[in-house]
Write a structure and sequence with these properties.
Structural class: mainly alpha
Strand content: under 5%
Largest sheet: none
Distance between the termini: 40 Å
Length: 95
């Protein structure tokens, strides 16, 4: 279980741009070589996006997320979609 938790922490570090270039390269090689790692990476990425959309990230993580993760248009679109979904779900629950 500890290895899984460490991998998830590495995923977040990668997504927030906290890895050195050699670390990034090694991380990418590992997840592209292993389908289960890549699938877990996608889950962690979705969780991070959802946490941001809900306002659940600590300020320092939120700032890194906005600076690094939101630097591409497709990622920004994914976040906008998550925010819309969360707002719709919240409104439906309030009824």
């Amino acid at each position: 279980m500890q290895a899984s938790h460490d991998y998830e922490k590495d995923c977040v570090r990668y997504l927030l741009g906290e890895m050195s270039e050699p670390e990034q390269t090694q991380f990418e090689e590992a997840y592209f070589a292993d389908d289960s790692r890549f699938e877990r990476f996608l889950v962690v990425k979705d969780d991070l996006v959802d946490s941001y959309a809900r306002g659940d990230l600590r300020e320092s993580q939120r700032e890194r997320f906005e600076k690094h993760f939101l630097s591409s248009e497709p990622r920004g679109q994914r976040v906008a979609e998550a925010e819309t979904l969360i707002q719709a779900a919240t409104a439906a629950c309030a009824k």
